[in-house]
Automatic annotation (TrEMBL), chain A:
Pfam family, one: Acyl-CoA_dh_1
Species classification: Bacteria, Pseudomonadati, Pseudomonadota, Alphaproteobacteria, Rhodospirillales
Family per similarity comment: Belongs to the acyl-CoA dehydrogenase family.
Organism: Nitrospirillum viridazoti CBAmc
Domain of life: Bacteria
InterPro entries: Acyl-CoA_Oxase/DH_mid-dom, Acyl-CoA_Oxase/DH_mid-dom_sf, AcylCo_DH-like_C, AcylCo_DH/oxidase_C, AcylCoA_DH/ox_N, AcylCoA_DH/ox_N_sf, AcylCoA_DH/oxidase_NM_dom_sf, Mycobact_Acyl-CoA_DH
Protein name in the entry: Acyl-CoA dehydrogenase
Gene3D superfamilies noted in UniProt: Acyl-CoA dehydrogenase/oxidase, N-terminal domain, Butyryl-CoA Dehydrogenase, subunit A, domain 2, Butyryl-CoA Dehydrogenase, subunit A, domain 3
From TrEMBL, chain B:
Keyword list, A-Z: FAD, Flavoprotein, Oxidoreductase
UniProt keyword Transport, yes or no: no
Domain Acyl-CoA dehydrogenase/oxidase C-terminal: 220-356
Organism name: Nitrospirillum viridazoti CBAmc
Name of this protein: Acyl-CoA dehydrogenase
InterPro entries documented for this protein: Acyl-CoA_Oxase/DH_mid-dom_sf (IPR046373), AcylCo_DH-like_C (IPR036250), AcylCo_DH/oxidase_C (IPR009075), AcylCoA_DH/ox_N (IPR013786), AcylCoA_DH/ox_N_sf (IPR037069), AcylCoA_DH/oxidase_NM_dom_sf (IPR009100)
Family: Belongs to the acyl-CoA dehydrogenase family.
Keyword Protease carried by entry: no
GO MF annotation, one: acyl-CoA dehydrogenase activity
Cofactor names: FAD
Domain Acyl-CoA dehydrogenase/oxidase N-terminal residue range list: 40-107
Amino acid sequence: MRDWNALSDEAFRLAARDFIEAHCPAHLRRGEEHVRWAQSKDWYHAMAAHGWLAPGWPVEHGGMALKPAKHLIYLEEWARAGISRVMEQGVLNVGPVLLAHGTPDQIAHYLPRILSGEDLWCQGFSEPGAGSDLAGLRTEARIEGDTFVINGHKIWTSGAVDANHIFVLARTDKTVKKQAGISFILVDMNQPGVTVKPIVTVNGDAEFAEVFLDNVRAPVANLVGGLNNGWRVAQSLLGFERVWAGSPHMGRQAMDRMVRVARLAGRDRDPAIVDRIAQLQLDLADNSEMYERLAQEIRAGHSFGFEVSTLKIVATETYARITELTLEIAGEQGGLAGEAPFADGPLVLGKADLLRDYLTARAPMIYGGTVQIHRNILAKRVLGLPA
Amino acid sequence: MATENDIVAELAASAQRVVADGPGPTGARSRRSQLPGYDPSSLGLLTDLGWLGILVPEEDGGIGLGLPEMAAVVRELEKGLMGEPLLPYAVLGARVLVHGDGPARAALLAQVPAGECLAALALDFNGALPAVTAVPADGGWRLSGQAGSVVGGVSATHLLVPAQAPDGVRLFAVPANSPGVTKAHLWRADDTPLGQVALAEVVVGNGEVLATPAAAETAVARALDETRIVVAAGLLGLSEHMLAMTLVYMGVRKQYGQLIGSFQALQHKAVDLYIDKERAAAALQFGLATGGDPATLPLAAVRAKGRCSDTACRVARDSIQLHGAIGFTDEHDLGLYVKRALTLSAWLGNAGEQRRRFIDMGWALA
């Protein structure tokens, strides 16, 4: 196995670029956020075969053991190439959680099956009544002999239509403080009582689903990190990948489109519009500078904390504002779905039409903690404001 | 050997001590609408510390540090409202002298670190060159015209005057007490004076030429951009200080039986100021990292000055709002910082002006 960390950042970047060029099919490089497993599995298997699937896992488990700085570069190269996300929950969350909290048996059983693509995971956290207030979740797991019997209703489950396993946060003690009565359980979806119902989102994607659990069973051996310890286990999922939420990559892509739209619509000489574009360019540039500063800290091996919340707010809100101005620049054509004709030619952005961009930009301000929740965090943890 | 970062940190710590021991807002309050607009004893102290020579090259008698070091000092001094004497003389004036190519350069520059030469650049508003003409006269020049915006002009020993000569713009170092020089002033938002200078047939020798047409306009433009970056640091310091004052107040002021800092609407407003401040720090960092190279200096200045101006004004406005009625009184020190922020954000181009430059440089649609 290569020691990727021994390469210079630039050499690693080129290696990642070469790998992507050689193996990632064109239909996954159109900047679409999510694609179905049927379209992405060849790429998934190619990454596994060449050792590029699990950048954060240790080498002995088939990973690349990338340090955060290199890992960020890999993510940047994905974004640069416009690669869609593939079934990533197993690699991103299940592997690291089991390595940190799992039993030797769990690690030995599940990790190879993630790399092989045999087990495809989704995350059963959010519920209709438990979004920002995740600890208020009501899905229940009761123990019958050596089995959990689980009942509940999960929602916003990304990839559930293709997954065959789900990791679930379920209430196992109702008599204690809400965070203290939750357990983290691995569940096979291939059994009666599991119902997956796709959710079509406002931008037309069917990436999310609701998952209904009706007397679903899981062996007690599938408990991760101990009974009623699930909240702590779930918190440990929030690794350095959160930094990526503050990267300007989405804003940059949206900015490129905005400049194209401004030219096509002939508004690139309209001083009222150009002034506002300039402000957003400056906002994006400062977002990049903030991100770069944090990435440098990470490269230097320093720890980081709540800067991540600051960056997430800056990056997602800047991205959203860019899509808003883009639609405004487009004028009446901004009200069209699909291809938009302009005097200087039609705007063809594949599936990524203007309206879709505008709508898609709503999501990052909601998932992974709404920007309001992140403001609450900053108020308390960084500014020290009273509760 | 001390690294660059060590020096920056050391200078910032020294400046913090100067502020802690200095007259602070009380001093600034007592100097309002008084000439010269800064504390003369502070100027002595800053001279003793060597800070007037931070941006003067070693070979010219200074200590030859860079914008990051001066920015660190000014960022802290502005928290005590003590940045004023450095900005016109040790930053703008000194850098114009550094970039000069004429005979006046060496002797004047050598006097800057000791405070013997306090040189103020004579400009018109919004960074325009002043309407001054230079007519050749036996063995020298005769200067006539006006300069409407001369920060530091009231107490300068020398006025650095760009003048239209027959062969292009020349820069002259005019002793401020020369016959034919008259000085007046307006008051800036923070009640410090803005010099206004008139020159009537002022006779200067060839030895007073600071920059020839080959260098004059570039010298002024570079010095202005360098000063914009240092002023941006001052604006960041003001933003940090006003936010800190506001957070303290939110932690002591009670209404409805609760600390107002516990109200979510106010918390989110305060967080937005914090986020803006972090973003301004990043823009300043960009400016400092790229401001040393003449090729990247203009963009560095545009980004740092624009963002820090915008941020300081927003923090100022919202700090008044979060303080409530007390923040609207003259008695409360917050107002002194608000007015200082308004003064520095307007000087050498506010956020809108920097955005216009950004567009003119072709970056908006890049």
